[in-house]
Amino acid sequence: MKLFIVTLLCVCGFVTASDDDRLPNKCEVCKFLTVELQDALQKSSRSKEVLELGEVLGTGRRRRKIKYNTSETRLTEAVDDICERILQYSVHAERPGSLRYAKGASQTMTTLKNLVHKGVKVELGLPFELWDEPSVEVSDMKKQCERMLEQFEDVVEDWYFHHQDQRLENFLCETHVLKTSEQECLSEMWKGDVGKKRGTEEAESDSAEEEEEANDGKEEEGKTHEEL
Q1: Rounded to whole angstroms, how far apart are CA atoms 176 and 152?
Q2: Which of 1-5, 72-76, 103-107, 148-152 has the highest mean pLDDT?
Q3: Please, which residues have CB within 8 angstroms of residue 82's CB and are 6 or more apart in sequence?
Q4: Alpha helices (H) in the chain, listed in sequence order
């Protein structure tokens, strides 16, 4: 049994390795840059802190007070490690398009780890302790994120100070970064694991059929007793 599983995994591993040669495109980079930036800003949106800007230096001038929520400081702090956060993503090779990038372990990797813990030998071409390190795809996305953020820094600032009534993804990606023909990934939404959902539905269907068969059996048994 273990030999069969290892052989199967070797085939799956070959397919996965081919898929891993695919690097993130501009749409995917912009999409996840905006996801992380909006998330970082959302976490600091309820702060009631007030910043005092300017030095008195014996001039008698009062320091200018600015709400942290609308300050440049808040944006700077949010942007500071945005691309670093991309390294928290994993490649979920079983999902299509931009949905292949998500935080948390992929189904494939979780399955492989479970097999290792059960004593099955799995060869991925790198030590087990490095399995959770960022993949080539994710590392490339981080680098592209840094270049994109530097190139469109003024656009992000313009959105922050003047256009927060629009989603950052729309303002940055659709309006400034991507051509119309490059925007396909922006409409891709995660709807849960279809495979698991189907599996659950099939299990429920099988259970219902078994229950129906059991009830039919009881009815037949009841009729037999009446006839006797």
Answers
A1: 8
A2: 148-152
A3: 33, 36, 37, 40, 145, 149
A4: 2-19, 26-43, 72-80, 82-85, 107-117, 136-151, 153-162, 168, 194-227
Q: How confident is the model at residue 71 (pLDDT cuts 50, 70, 90)?
A: confident
Could you read off the pLDDT of 83-113 as tens digits, one per residue?
999 999 999 888 899 999 998 877 777 778 7
* CA neighbours closer than 13 Å in the CB half-sphere of residue 59: 7
Instruction: Confirm if 162 and 155 have CB atoms less than 8 A apart.
Output: no
169 pLDDT exceeds 60? yes
Identify whether the C-beta of residue 156 lies closer than 8 Å to the C-beta of residue 79. yes
